[in-house]
Structures are given as structure tokens and as C-alpha cells.
Amino acid sequence: MSDALEVLDQVGKWKASGKDVAIATVITTWGSSPRPVGSQLAVDDTGAMVGSVSGGCIEGAVVKEALASITDGQPRLLDFGVTDEQAWDVGLACGGKVQVFVEKVS
Fold it and tell me: Which of 26, 43, 56, 103 is paired with 75 by a 20 to 30 Å CA distance?
């Protein structure tokens, strides 16, 4: 099963069981980005997740915002970036930028 289908399949299961869910989607990348545009991460109201928007480096921040979106129903546009100089400090080989859109699933 493809990553996108796995994410959507799990979202359907969570929703069918009565859980609230948010989906985060990579909408823009520039420079170094571990995941391409269209990559998704789904989070349920307990913090369980499926998929990936970053391979780990920003996942914690995205999950936090997804949980907040579940609570208040508001979508979010998240910007993450790192300069070439900062890249080695955070464990990335080179700098880049990622934009992630987060929204609660109705």
C-alpha cells in the first residue's frame, strides 16, 4: 500500500471508531527536504500517528500543532527552515525549507 493510501486508510479507521483526527500535508519544499510535496502525517486525538512529513526532524512540532488543530478546529500553515550554517547543528546535511498545512478532518 502506498504511503498516501496507508495514511487515508488509517484516518478512515480512526474516524469510524469515533476519534478526532488531523492531517498534515507538505505543501512546499525548497532546498533539502526529506519528504516531497504531498507527503502526509495523520494524528488522532490521543497522539497516535501514521505517515511522515519530515522523516523525524519536525514531526514533534507538527504533531503538537495537529493536536491543537483537533482541539480548536483551526487550520495551520507551518513554516520550517534551516540555513546551511545551522544544518549540521540539527543533523541535516544541508539547509532547506518545508511548509506544512495542518487541518482537522471533519
Answer: 56
